[in-house]
Amino acid sequence: MAELGQRLKPMENLSASFTQTVTSADGYIIQEVTGKLVVARPGRVRWSSDAPYEQLVVSDAETLWLYDPDLEQVTVRPFHNDISRTPAVLFIGEVDTLARDYRVQAEKNNGIDKYWLEPRGSDALYERIAIEFEGNKPHAMALWDSLGQVTRIGFTDVTVNGPVDAGAFTFTPPKGVDVLHDE
């Protein structure tokens, strides 16, 4: 656990391109998505996925906006500091709480450092998480849910602690879209 914490703690922000593939329990690809990610501690996120599954998720650590252009809909909800149920905790949460919330195992293979995380609580969204690093940069993640689906996320063009536009973590709904408040 200490080794993973040492990798994550100095990471104040991260930007990357990603490819996300969701596979069913029987091995069929359900969805493939590409996009861009910008995250910063504490609690700031901008996750934009490209067509055909276009979606934008933005958090300023107080409010979370989920924008679906196809549905012309924005869902607005409070951002909860307790994000320990989600893998986002690795990049935007308090690193010091990882040992409390997860059992962590490390392995090294061909220059890749891989960490396996198993949630300690029963309310986690995923049964297991794996994160891989090449040097000090995250290279890939995999998430296993209770239905046997696996979400794999590969990161490219990764920048750690680079300049981040503060406007990346704000969102104003476009005119004409439905705005739903989920308190």
Could you provide a short overview of the structure?
This protein has 183 residues and is mainly β. The protein is built from 3 helices and 12 strands, in the order H-E-E-E-E-E-E-H-H-E-E-E-E-E-E.
Quick tags:
183 residues, outer membrane lipoprotein receptor (LolB), chain A, mainly beta, 3 helices, 12 strands, 12-stranded mixed beta sheet
Binned strand content:
over 45%
Unreliable stretches (pLDDT < 50, length at least 5) are none
Strand order of the largest sheet: 7-8-9-10-11-1-2-3-4-5-6-12
The number of domains is 1
Write down the CATH topology.
Answer: outer membrane lipoprotein receptor (LolB), chain A
Total count of strands: 12
CATH superfamily: Lipoprotein localisation LolA/LolB/LppX
On the 0 to 100 scale, the average pLDDT is 91
- Identify the CATH class: Mainly Beta
Q: Which H/E pattern describes the elements?
A: HEEEEEEHHEEEEEE
Number of helices: 3
> What characterizes the major β-sheet?
12 strands, mixed
Radius of gyration: 16 Å
In the CATH hierarchy, what is the architecture at level 2?
Clam
Distance between the termini: 34 Å
The secondary structure category is mainly beta
Estimate percent helicity.
Answer: under 10%
Write up what this structure looks like.
With 183 residues, this protein is mainly beta. The chain has one domain (2-181): Lipoprotein localisation LolA/LolB/LppX (outer membrane lipoprotein receptor (LolB), chain A, Clam), CATH 2.50.20. It is 8% helix and 51% strand. It contains three helices and twelve strands; from the N terminus they run αββββββααββββββ. The chain has helices at 2-8, 89-92, 98-101; strands at 13-23, 29-40, 44-49, 55-60, 63-68, 73-78, 102-109, 112-119, 128-134, 137-144, 150-160, 178-181. The protein has a twelve-stranded mixed beta sheet with strand order 7-8-9-10-11-1-2-3-4-5-6-12. Strand 8 and strand 9 form a beta hairpin. The chain is globular, with a radius of gyration of 16 Å. The mean pLDDT is 91.
